[in-house]
Amino acid sequence: MTATADSRELVRIAAAAAADTGGEDLVALDVSQPLPFVDAFLLVTGRSERNVVAIADEVEDRLRDAGARAVRREGRAEGRWALLDFGDLVVHVFHPEERAYYALERLWKDCPVISVEEAIAGGR
To answer: What domains, with CATH codes, occur in the chain?
Structure first.
């Protein structure tokens, strides 16, 4: 099983929103094989607490405009890490230290990468 076309479109929208708001080091992973309840993770780094919150807000706004609704939000208040769960897509926005600490790329290293280059290039 691989991430659906709808999930990949959500990744594209979220990646463009994150890039437009100063998000860095974007990585999207197809986690549909090991996780039957989610298709993709999008990992983003924000350079400050304020930037982490701004990225999370913009991602949520754009996905809501596209018809997706967050079913859960975590960690946003502190601005060090935000998790936005849209069902098929989970967006993690990290402050650099938290991203290094949780090392989700290492944890999910066997999962295929979903290209976000087009979304990033199109947004800038």
So the answer is: 5-123 (3.30.460.10)
